[in-house]
Amino acid sequence: MSAVDLSRPIVPGMPVWPGDPAVEAAPACTVEGDGCSVTRVTLGTHTGTHLDAPAHLVSGGRALDTLPPEAFFGTAAVVRGFPSLDALEALSGVDFLLFSTGWASQWGKPGYFYRYPVPTPALLEQIIHMGVRGLGMDTPSPDPPDSLEHHRLLLGAGLVVVENLCNLCKLEGRRVWFAALPLPLAGADGAPVRAIALPLEEEDA
Hints:
Number of strands: 10
CATH superfamily: Putative cyclase
CATH class: Alpha Beta
Distance between the termini: 18 Å
Largest sheet: 7 strands, mixed, barrel
């Protein structure tokens, strides 16, 4: 099976978290006028499908460019919804957990950033104890819109968080090779990523 693209295209006018910078793109140079095409892009570090580094919310937390490359790729289990604590036992031995909640279908709709499902603190505590490198989800945040406690819990433990994934529904129940590679922006708290997954085997996750 071919690699599955889990990323939202970055385009002007796309949805962004309320209050975040809008995406802007305009020609800086053109082939006709300058001999080459260059585009000037303005966007926030948490635009679209993106990765949160610990520095996003943790004072003294590691910035994006100080994380090792292996923080951004590895094996992953793609899970339908947020599992029970007992179900987590069957998901051991992977580097990432990816949660397919079905919320990706709400992308671009008015309630996308407000009514999404979130995991429980108990589930996140157990995930941290599993020793994974990070988690990803097809929602805009592991927290409710009015909280950041889940972020602080995960990022404070040194995990990375990948948000606004898409197409996870195609991979539910599988283990995959997963990569979410950000630009190495010096001192950054996060960055958009090109996230992909390549199925490794057939099994229920």
